[in-house]
Amino acid sequence: MKRGLPLILLAALALLLGGCAAPTLRSEVTAFHEWPAQLPDQSFVFERSRAQDNDLEYRNYENLVRDELLRLGFTDPAAAGKAALKIGLAYQVNERDVRIVEPVVVNSGWGAPYYGPRWPYRYYDPFYDPFWYSPPVVSYQESNYRLYRRQLQVGITRVSDGKKLYDVTVISEGKTASLAAAMPYMVKSAFADFPGKSGVPRQVELEFKEAKTKAPQE
């Protein structure tokens, strides 16, 4: 039994470390841009439709984008008509059903006890028995769930000539349909390493910092 203790301790340690891992949200980010080397005026205004003007959800996500732009050195003018850049954003959630069939070991391979040379005294030692292990029995387990594809798109256009300077798409997938939980991290992912390499998809993984905020299920 002493030889089995280290394996038990390692398994317990793995479970402990796994349980302590902080939840994260992983996003696929692709940005296309022709960002100028010099852009002295980085004042911006959001481009809204009439429906978006009275959409509380849209305005909340707009504020998240505004905070990121201000962090990057952009300026939010008091007079919207004097802005050099206009910002547009769109978002959506799509869903699909997922079916997974995966192998599961239903028999670990432990065989019948081996009786040693001191038979008939029923002495055995499984750790030294070459015939103790039998081939594992594998079954298949099916699981079904709904997967949500959350998408955010942000564009930055120069007002003077209407030229699109930056267009980024962020996609995250998980079992949570709510955009409200995922959007703060998707917005941060959209502007991570701004402006970045144009047309090169990358993964951005962010840890949930807010202890009181329920993390979306990935």
UniProtKB/TrEMBL annotation:
Alphabetized UniProt keyword annotations: Signal
Record domain DUF4136: where: 30-196
Signal sequence coordinates: 1-21
Pfam name, any one: DUF4136
Entry-linked InterPro entries: DUF4136
Signal listed as a keyword: yes
Name of the protein in question: DUF4136 domain-containing protein
Source organism per UniProt: Noviherbaspirillum sedimenti
